[in-house]
Amino acid sequence: MSRYLACARMQFATVLTYRADFLLTLGLLLVQIYLLRVVWTAVYADREVAAGVSVHTMIAYATLVSVQYALFTSWRFSQIPQRVREGKVAMDLLRPVGFCGQMLAGQVGGTAATLPFILVVLPFALLVGGAAAPASALAAVCYAVSLLLAYVITQLLALTVGMVAFWTLETTGMFMIYRVAAQFLSGALVPLWFMPEPLRLVAQLLPFQATAYTPTAAYLGQLHGSGLAAALGVQVLWVGLLAALARLVWSRAVYRVVVQGG
């Protein structure tokens, strides 16, 4: 465990080194939340409710999802292509912690470094966006569980995409496609309850909706009873499947490493 903590501490220090850049990102987050509030207020116009969802709930949803996305940012995995191109991955393989474990522990360290900034920004985010208490005490507990599962799913997805660099050396385009698809199909831009039926079915078959929609809908009470239990079960299922996929990809990727010279 101490080895994983060491990996986490290294990434923790790296993120804090560039805290000015991160504070600028958080400033942009507040602008995004404000713009989402303006847009959704305009969309609802003079209606109080659309598709059974009030404008207050919709703005709270958009605010919460935006903050979650800032917290879930995958710092570590976008560095994999650079480490592969520069040969630094060879040093990673020499460490007493597996490559995937190093990446995931580093990501946890990066998230831990951003957490205090998120907590500072959160009141301002709720002020420019919208705040809503959990639908119930049970919703708050389920939200905490679902948020943790969503974090694991997000990092496993990003790790798998990042490891494609062992074949392509460059994943900038792939990460752009992944982020656009993930942001839309997760319900971060448009909640699943507003999507057309065919598109909603597609989104429900993919893991992205388990990273944003599920925890936020649980918090707001849009998922409850058997529907909430099923959604949590789907998240657990995706954690297992994506962990197996990441393990499979790494088992193939490690044979792509060729070390030249001494």
From TrEMBL:
<feature type="transmembrane region" description="Helical">
    <location>
        <begin position="148"/>
        <end position="169"/>
    </location>
</feature>
<feature type="transmembrane region" description="Helical">
    <location>
        <begin position="118"/>
        <end position="141"/>
    </location>
</feature>
<dbReference type="InterPro" id="IPR010390">
    <property type="entry name" value="ABC-2_transporter-like"/>
</dbReference>
<feature type="transmembrane region" description="Helical">
    <location>
        <begin position="175"/>
        <end position="194"/>
    </location>
</feature>
<protein>
    <submittedName>
        <fullName>ABC transporter permease</fullName>
    </submittedName>
</protein>
<feature type="transmembrane region" description="Helical">
    <location>
        <begin position="21"/>
        <end position="43"/>
    </location>
</feature>
<keyword id="KW-1133">Transmembrane helix</keyword>
<feature type="transmembrane region" description="Helical">
    <location>
        <begin position="49"/>
        <end position="72"/>
    </location>
</feature>
<keyword id="KW-0472">Membrane</keyword>
<dbReference type="Pfam" id="PF06182">
    <property type="entry name" value="ABC2_membrane_6"/>
</dbReference>
<keyword id="KW-0812">Transmembrane</keyword>
<feature type="transmembrane region" description="Helical">
    <location>
        <begin position="227"/>
        <end position="250"/>
    </location>
</feature>
